[in-house]
Amino acid sequence: xxxxxxxxxxxxxxxxxxxxxxxxxxxxxxxxxxxxxxxxxxxxxxxxxxxxxxxxxxxxxxxxxxxxxxxxxxxxxxxxxxxxxxxxxxxxxxxxxxxxxxxxxxxxxxxxxxxxxxxxxxxxxxxxxxxxxxxxxxxxxxxxxxxxxxxxxxxxxxxxxxxxxxxxxxxxxxxxxxxxxxxxxxxxxxxxxxxxxxxxxxxxxxxxxxxxxxxxxxxxxxxxxxxxxxxxxxxxxxxxxxxxxxxxxxxxxxxxxxxxxxxxxxxxxxxxxxxxxxxxxxxxxxxxxxxxxxxxxxxxxxxxxxxxxxxxxxxxxxxxxxxxxxxxxxxxxxxxxxxxxxxxx
Amino acid sequence: xxxxxxxxxxxxxxxxxxxxxxxxxxxxxxxxxxxxxxxxxxxxxxxxxxxxxxxxxxxxxxxxxxxxxxxxxxxxxxxxxxxxxxxxxxxxxxxxxxxxxxxxxxxxxxxxxxxxxxxxxxxxxxxxxxxxxxxxxxxxxxxxxxxxxxxxxxxxxxxxxxxxxxxxxxxxxxxxxxxxxxxxxxxxxxxxxxxxxxxxxxxxxxxxxxxxxxxxxxxxxxxxxxxxxxxxxxxxxxxxxxxxxxxxxxxxxxxxxxxxxxxxxxxxxxxxxxxxxxxxxxxxxxxxxxxxxxxxxxxxxxxxxxxx
Lengths: 345, 308
Hints:
heterodimer, A: mainly alpha, MetI-like fold, 15 helices, globular, B: mainly alpha, 11 helices, 71% helix, elongated
């Protein structure tokens, strides 16, 4: 279970005192924004000091495993020899332009990162949407007929999928569907986003890209949907004991409508929150799965940065991931508060 | 279990010392716990599976000599499919995959358990602290938990592991210090619930200090929850070890399931169609993680029957 999921479960188990009067949404949003800003500041400070306070000579850390000439080393040392406070102020005024270039690409780190953002956004949004929709559907069906065959099979499958390292699932799918085992022919490409030489924007090119997207997106969808199915199931099961369902049934409402109009909307909230909160977990999956499928996104770039190691690049990617998570959390808080007045405590 | 230690309430217990009485009560509650746990089929299956892996980890040196892990002493063909001498085939250096998997159990279990001990210790301390102390001290601990909860786990672990360098101890520390916030939050919520009960007020009125309140009253009440959470954390820690080792951040001198997958990937096992090299380590991870998860869920069910 990821720590975000635990947090979501923990807050579901111990709801904050409910206030049905619906405190002002405006005040709530302001408070969340301020808190997100504080978190962001912490991330910035943490990111700055992490690489400077840990043991070892920063120069050797930055240049481990690569050849740099004396001129470059002197330049780097001059930068790092400035007083800590000066460096910190420089960094805070513009965290996105750490003076140090990527050691692998010899270009400013943010230039390098810019080239890798889109493939990751496409892959992760495809996988997130698919896994949320499918996972929620499975969770509803299983939770509604708790203890039935579908429930038992889907819970077992979800737990098994949840226990799998995503990248291993990716490698198994790759060997099955791309390399081909025994009588099974390889049907899918082994990596990349497009067949070389095909025009990106032609009809063939778009189909070709979808064909390349299929396996990595399938891997991540399977990896994520397990968690959504489990959480959706358990929150629906919690709703099943509520009195308002008995009331709805007593009114003679058909079972299907009781489920659709009453139980599901109420049970949906924790799962939807989780989808947003999970971006940190989603990003982690991208790192290994993109590596397995040589999908040229931030995950593959992280892998290259680790293998370098390319510390400045790694630091920048870490910052980017952390900030995306803070922003996603803020969005989740605001959306949930807008939908459900109970959480504006 | 000795037969003379009757359950609490048995008249014989009345003549014993308070300590003996307490022990008898504890034993009785453990027995009750076990009786409920035993009825959970999935939980028992998980426990059996864990026992199997524990035996494999302990018996590894008896089953395969450490020489079999030496690349220079490998005797098999390179990346050969399963055959008589090599039931699970060989790796890119001609070593037996079976021997590697069995030896890998040791590192994976060790890292999982040791990292969890660190994570649980930090999580429990911070959780109880932030729940018990009001005011600025508790506030700081609470904020700290929230902040660490937000920072994405794997990128943080990668950064720490890269900076610290790869060794067995470092990977344990990295996983331990990055996975505590979930526990801290859970423990905090439970601490707040316990602190609002009358017996804590009584302890305070009678002059019990912070230390006394936290260790004698809060901790024992939080422990069952921590216990259930522990098994789930071990599962995550083992998955994390696999992922970090796959990324090349594990101990390069020790075989673990993650490092096997890393080697398999680097050696082109996928394009060679060497399923016998990929499947065993991955299936072992799935089995162990699933086993810990099942045990954790069963524990939760026993402790909180309402959720069954």
